[in-house]
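ok so I'm stuck.
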Amino acid sequence: MSHFTEVKTKLKCLVTLKKVIEEMGFAFKEGVTTVRGYQGDTTEAIAVIDTKSSYDIGVVQTADGYSLVGDWEMLQVRAGIEQEEFLQTLNKKYAYSKVLEEVSKQGYQVVEEEENEQNVVRVRVRRWT
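replied:
not stuck anymore, here's the structure
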């Protein structure tokens, strides 16, 4: 009996996703398409996030971007990865990375960053002319 659950995301850029996953301390394995789960169950994905346990998180391409698949219950037990916390961190870092990428593309530079007690990041940018 499979325990895999697919979590839909708003992630659209595989390059940024890979960068953020690696910043979070995980290996992002492209070309590895088998996601390991409960009692040897597997499912397919376009890439695998190595959790340093016998359970993986898979990256699945969808019509809208990418979703993540894994045995989230066992990932919490075996790898200490809680689904909601993992996704919160991933989404925050992904959004931050995309903002900085877009700011740079438009010729701006970051002049100030701050994070408040609610973990909201404020970035001030300026374009030098």
